[in-house]
Write a structure and sequence with these properties.
Length: about 550
């Protein structure tokens, strides 16, 4: 609810500071004193159009500030998500209008863009008048109000419908993703199969390339290898016209054996020489085996060259054979996924059909309940309208079926109304303005206000065009709405003003040759005199007595 408002240099309001509380608050005054200016200022505070015409003549800027407490949950949630959490239970808003056309909007003392500001303040106040804050005339709110009218059981059913719709939409989204994959499946599958077959046909083995390169190097240099290995064998064992290493070591060994016959101390030299002797003999045998086993096949070199070319062609899949094999494994996994796409899609479609049946079942139940509640709402509103002189009016809730499962159910709802017999029902948003609209609005608010999360309602001359016994009913209904809400009402009707829990008088005064609007909280005695003025008698004894009777009757 709005607890304080501060207005500076706004039209004729030079400096106005007001405090409010719950209940029905009345604003009254002579025509032209500036009652609508207060509504204009509140509209600006709530993000409405801020014209420079609102700035007091001769000044450069106007300011409207407000403090709200006990804000609706959705407003608190929006503020928290945007980074403007409520502190000490108070929401502080301000809007500054400058002649330059620049608007400065602040939330909790922090400047915010106007678009964000409007989003954050939406849902704080519902103004019935010439402003756009008429939530009841927004078709998007009708289904929500109808469900709230049905109570907790209907709201719980709505939650189940929303969850079913969410499940279905999730499966539908996954199906669309798979279908997009399906469009590319055949092309991608062909590519993968070709690439896998290409690698499989070559069948590369780990470390194969290094082994082939080493073998190629040996075969290319076979003549050098054979020449050198023959020379090694000759030097070690054959001698080739001169003593070989084996012969020379043998003679050395024989000489040491002869010495050993005469001097046993030389045995330490004989053991190493004998070890060398047998090592050379073994080495020569190995060299001979290598030479005899060396197989130089020119055809083998061609085979190696061809194999290396095949491996080289696989370089597009990896720099090494190990990388090529890893790429093949990844492609096999992807191919497996693609080839099983149809199976996954079929399973998903079965799940989607089951989810659709579940949604349809719950949505059908919700639709049935809505039909019942729509009838109850129409009957209740007919009674409310009859109290306000609209005995011939008719009201219906029109349902429009929705083609796709979605949150909120299988239909959209919109309120239709007509005030006269024989006239067609029309959407509530298209009902003509005037007394009928005012009474209809009051009837709707009287019936539905407790269901709305908005905490503050403003009625600007809602009694316009209403007279006789009906005007008394207007006051009663305003008072009934104010039992659980904060209600502001600008009125010229004393029968309505008498119901107020609080009453502010609005007057114009001239100070230093400048006109300004003064708003004053009225005491009980001042209220009696204001009611007498509204009755047309001001200080006349009869008017004062009538005013006292009005207040006494209400109290």
């Amino acid at each position: 609810m709005l607890t304080e408002i501060h207005v500076e240099n706004f039209a004729l309001m030079e400096a106005v500071q007001l405090s409010f509380s719950r209940g029905l608050t009345i604003f009254s005054g002579e025509t032209g004193t500036g009652k609508s200016m207060l509504i204009d200022a509140l509209g600006v505070l709530l993000g409405g159009r801020a014209s420079t015409d609102f700035i007091r003549h001769g000044l450069e800027k106007a300011l409207v500030e407000g403090i709200f407490e006990e804000c609706p949950p959705e407003v608190l949630e929006g503020l928290a998500e945007a980074g403007y959490p409520i502190e000490d239970g108070q929401l502080i808003l301000s809007r500054e209008i400058n002649r330059s056309g620049r608007n400065i909007c602040r939330v909790q003392g922090r400047t915010v863009p106007l678009t964000l500001y409007r989003t954050l303040v939406q849902g704080l106040v519902d103004i019935h008048g010439q402003m756009e804050h008429q939530s009841l005339f927004n078709p998007d709110s009708h289904r929500r109000l109808l469900d709230a009218f049905g109570g907790e059981q209907q709201l719980e059913l709505l939650k189940r419908v929303n969850q079913s719709a969410k499940n279905y939409r999730g499966l539908l989204q996954r199906e669309q993703q798979l279908l997009r994959s399906e469009a590319d499946r055949e092309r991608r599958e062909d590519i993968l199969r070709y690439q896998i077959d290409e690698i499989t046909a070559v069948d590369p083995q780990p470390d194969e390339e290094d082994s082939l390169l080493q073998e190629k190097k040996r075969l290319v240099n076979s003549e050098k290898i054979m020449g050198n290995i023959t020379e090694v064998y000759s030097l070690l064992y054959e001698g080739n016209g001169q003593s070989s290493a084996f012969d020379q070591i043998g003679r050395s060994r024989k000489a040491l054996q002869e010495i050993l016959r005469y001097d046993e101390d030389c045995s330490t030299m004989l053991e190493p020489i004998e070890s060398i002797y047998y090592m050379i003999e073994d080495l020569a045998s190995q060299v001979m085996s290598y030479r005899e086993g060396f197989d130089f096949d020119p055809g083998r070199l061609d085979q190696i060259e061809e194999r290396l070319i095949q491996l080289q062609r696989l370089r597009k899949y990896g720099h090494t054979v190990q990388e090529v094999l890893q790429t093949k494994e990844e492609m096999l996994k992807e191919l497996h996924t693609i080839t099983h796409l149809q199976g996954e899609l079929a399973s998903l479609r079965r799940d989607k059909e089951a989810a659709l049946r579940g949604y349809a079942e719950k949505a059908k139940e919700l639709s049935r309940v809505r039909e019942v509640q729509a009838q109850r709402l129409a009957e209740g509103l007919k009674k409310e309208c009859a109290d306000l002189g609209l005995e011939k009016s008719s009201f219906q809730v029109h349902f429009t079926a929705l083609s796709e499962p979605q949150a909120g159910g299988a239909e959209q709802a919109e309120f239709y109304f007509t005030a006269n017999v024989g006239e067609p029902l029309k959407p509530l948003a298209k009902v003509a303005s005037g007394g009928e609209m005012s009474r209809l609005m009051l009837a709707m608010k009287s019936l539905l206000s407790k269901l709305e999360s908005v905490g503050t309602f403003v009625f600007d001359e809602v009694d316009s065009g209403v007279g006789g016994r009906t005007i008394q009913k207007v006051g009663e209904k305003l008072a009934r709405i104010a039992e659980g809400k904060q209600v502001f009402c600008i009125t010229h009707a004393p029968q309505v003003a008498a119901f107020g829990d609080h009453h502010f008088g609005i007057q114009k005064e001239i100070i230093n040759e400048r006109t300004r609007t003064r708003i004053q909280y009225l005491t009980e005695d001042e209220r009696i005199h204001e009611l007498a003025r509204m009755l047309g008698g001001d200080e006349e004894a009869i008017a004062l007595e009538h005013a006292r009777k009005l207040r006494k009757k209400i109290q």
